[in-house]
Amino acid sequence: KSPFDLSGGEKRRVAIAGVRASEAPCIVFDEPTAMLDPTARRNVLELIRFLNKEAHITTILITHHMDEAIRAKRIVVMEKGKAILDGKPKEIFTRIDEIKRLGLEIPSIMDLAYRLFKNGKLSRYDVFNIEEFNLLCRDEGLVCKEGYFNENDSGMKESETKKTENKSVRDNNVKDNNDILNIEVLRLDNV
Length: 191
What we know:
By secondary structure, the chain is α+β, with helices and mostly antiparallel strands. It is 35% helix and 20% strand. It has seven helices and nine strands. The chain has helices at residues 8-21, 38-53, 66-69, 89-93, 96-101, 108-118, 130-139, and strands at 26-30, 58-62, 75-79, 82-87, 142-144, 147-149, 161-163, 169-171, 183-187. The strands form four sheets. The protein has a three-stranded antiparallel β-sheet with strand order 6-9-8. The protein is globular and about 55 Å long. The protein starts with 7 loop residues before the first helix and ends with a strand. The relative contact order is 0.10. The model is unreliable at 145-191 (pLDDT under 50).
């Protein structure tokens, strides 16, 4: 295949392979998923995770996508060239007011949990993946009526949620936080 016929994601993977061939102990990725479609974005992130976890290469990911940052072991938030927040994802993203003041988004799954928390539907919002969200909803007896939530929702309506005993939320569409834009939630008794 001609290099001119490669997609954006394929070009990025070729570039990563070239850097990998140099056997560098550390690789800095500067916005590696910018302007990629969701599939290419997922592939590039999986490759970066592989390099870190399996090939034991230190990876530094510079990103404005908080759904990517949430997977890091450590997050450093920079403002005007200075580190202003430094810690584990749970330490950083539970400081929602400070994150928003900095003009950053919170990760999508945490945003959904936060909106439910603000509307009195959940007792906490510190969830970092769909599994944690489902467990929290199950433990608190929250069931969402069949429908979709998306990150553009301004808030939850009372008619969208109800409390019930021994029910849980099931997600059929979300593979990881990159797919959180539309979450289909169904009552388990309807599945």
